[in-house]
Structures are given as C-alpha cells and as structure tokens.
Predict the 3D structure of the following.
Amino acid sequence: MSDTLIREREGAVAVLVLNRPDKLNALNQELISALLAAVQELDADEGVRACVLTGAGDRAFAAGADIAAMAEMSTTDARLFSELGHRAGAAMEAAHFPIVGAVNGFALGGGCELAMACDFLYACEKAKFGQPEVSLAVIPGFGGTQRLARRVGIGRAREICYTGEVIGAEEALRVGLVNRVVSAAELLGAAKATAQKIASMGPRAVASCKRVMLRGEDVPLTVAHELEMQAFGGLFGTADQREGMRAFLEKRKASFVGR
Ligand code: COA
C-alpha cells in the first residue's frame, strides 16, 4: 500500500489524507492511483457511509499535479495522466458515500480539481484555490474546466482559468466554492462532524440523493425530475424507510441498517 495516501476509519466514516507534505501534497501518479484504489475499495464496503478527504501538514490540501513529474511528459503520457486524474474524480463522484473535502491550505490546479470532485468543501481561513495551469502554458486536466463552472458559474470560472488567479477562502465562500470557512484547528473536526451526521442518516437514501443530484446536472430538467421520482419511489418498502417513518411517529431515534 502506498504511503502517499493515509487511510483512517472512524466508525462509518473513512478519512483519506493526501500525504506528500514536503511537496505540498503534489499529485503524482502514485498518489492519484492510491486515491483511486482507496475510493474504489471503500465503495465496495457498504459499511462506509461518508468520507473526509484532506491534505497532510498545515500548508496544503494539494498544490497541484506534480510539475516535476509532468515537465518531460509526452503528449501521450500527459493524456494518460489526465485520464488517471479524471478516473479518480469520477470514482469519487460514483462512490455511494458523500465525500467532504477539508481544504487545509493550497488547493491549486489538480488539488482544486480533486477538491471539486468532493461533494462539498469546508476550508480553513488560509486556504487558497486556483487553476494556475495557464501560467505553465497548459490547462486544467483533472476536470477543472467543467467542474469549476458548475460550482461558481461560467463567468467566474473563465476568469479564474484564463488568468490563473488564486482566490482566498472568503472569496471561495462568497462564490460558493466552499460551504464553510473555519479555523485550521477546527477544520478536520468540522468536516468529520458533518460526515458523522451524514453517516447517521438512511444510507440508501443518502446514496440515492447523491446519485440523483449528480446525474441530474447532466440531463435535461424533465429527465432529472424523472430520476428523482424513480429514486423516491424506489426507497419505499425498504426496511430503513419503514424504520425511519415509524421511529418519527413513535417519537424515538431511528436505527438504520442500510436495507
Ligand atoms: N508540483 C511539484 N512540486 C510542488 C508543487 C507542484 N505542483 N507545488 C509545490 N511543490 C514543491 C516545491 O517544488 C517545493 O519542493 P522542494 O522543497 O523540493 O523545492 C515544495 O513543494 C514546497 O513548495 P515551495 O514552492 O517551496 O513553497 P512556497 O511556499 O514558496 O510556494 C506555492 C507555495 C503553492 C505558491 C508554490 O509551491 C506553487 O506555486 N506551486 C505550484 C502551483 C501550481 O502551479 N499548481 C498547478 C500545477 S498544474
């Protein structure tokens, strides 16, 4: 197992830590492959109900794809590297559990792109976001040209991608890139607390909600509404739906089994 990714487990919550702090957690092939494998393994484990993704050290979530590794890449190498980053992002989005990104510093380039493959983000006050690839004469390659626009709107996304502008946590909050800004000391605890709260909900409902909200972005609204109706109906008759509604009526806390 690669030591570039730390894997922890707190009950139903998995915690993944990008771990190359001396390189500001720059994303090389080994680290992205480890992340992809970890997310796929966690996805196969029904006991995982939420995940937190963060970076090791106190400076970076990830300061981008590894520039040293990319510097001499051929066109084919670069295309394959981009595909690997896309596979990791796609696996994060396809996973049955939500992923809360805890952005503990720089989230630049591929780091910002991986963050945006999380379901939503919390950030510490000194977090910085950006897609500075044009300053290296390339473009975002792990989904940034598309995911940033979906998060902050096409105009602001174009401005950030064309200028390489780096924005701080408060601006990221203002444009909707992050949900919450807290102190560095509080960040991981806040992300874990939210993940634990998600993990206490009906697991199939959370997975279904994630799937419908994600797929709904890529289809016409009428189709998205149809997806919602299908998924809503599909949850009725499950043990958890019965338990959740019975527990409400009996004024007690529900106990879900994921069925
Ligand atoms: N790829 C490879 N190595 C990186 C890296 C990246 N994206 N980002 C940082 N590092 C490495 C540095 O090379 C340095 O390694 P060294 O100590 O062996 O020289 C180490 O991480 C610390 O970074 P450093 O640049 O010395 O820190 P800083 O505080 O002066 O600057 C940043 C921090 C984030 C502003 C700066 O590292 C930076 O601009 N990184 C690249 C950001 C980027 O363009 N990302 C998009 C890539 S597509």
About this structure: The chain has two domains: 5-199, 203-249. The mean pLDDT is 97. The domain at 5-199 is CATH 3.90.226.10 (2-enoyl-CoA Hydratase; Chain A, domain 1).
